Amino acid sequence: MNIYYLLPCRISYDPTRYPKYIPEAYCLCKGCLTGIYGEENFHFRSTPVYMPTVILRRTSACAGGRYVYTEDYVTIPVGCTCVPEQEKEADSVNSSIGKQEMKLLVNQNDKPASE
C-alpha cells in the first residue's frame, strides 16, 4: 500500500520568468518516516526529487513593442524520497580509491590458474 501526501512548498517568484510563480517542494524531515506509525528513521535521509522544466526567460530586447523571451532549462524540486544513509569510513579520505583497489585485487584472483 502506497501512502501519498502533499508536500509543503515554497512559491518561487521571478518577474522576468514565465511562469512568474513556480511552487517548489521541500523536505520536512532529515530522516525518513517508516514503520507502522511513521517514526522517523535516521538510517535513511530525506532528499529532494528534481524535475527538469522549460521556462521562458525575458530578455532585454523588444520586438514589435513586445518582450522577447528565450527558453531556459531549470530543475525544480517536486517531491522527496528516501535514500540510505552512507556509512562513514574513518580510515579513508576517499573511499572510492579503496574500492578501486579492491576491484583490482578481486579481478586478479579471478584469473584461471593455467595462465
Describe the structure concisely for a colleague:
This protein is mainly β.
List strands and helices in order, with pairings.
Elements lengths: L8 E5 L3 E2 L2 E5 L6 E3 L4 E3 L2 E20 L2 E19 L10 H15 L6
Antiparallel strand pairs: 1-3, 2-6, 4-5, 6-7
Q: Could you characterize the architecture of this molecule?
A:
By secondary structure, this protein is mainly β. The protein has 1 helix and 7 strands; from the N terminus they run βββββββα. It has a 3-stranded antiparallel β-sheet with strand order 2-6-7, with no helix packed on it. Strands 1-3 form a two-stranded antiparallel sheet. Strands 4-5 form a two-stranded antiparallel sheet. The longest helix has 15 residues. The chain is elongated. The N and C termini lie far apart (54 Å).
Q: What is the 3D shape?
A: elongated
Query: Structural class from helices and strands?
Result: mainly beta
Count of beta strands? 7
N→C terminal distance: 54 Å
Order of helices and strands: EEEEEEEH
Query: Order of strands in the sheet with the most strands?
Result: 2-6-7
List keywords for this structure.
115 residues; mainly beta; three-stranded antiparallel sheet; 13% helix; elongated
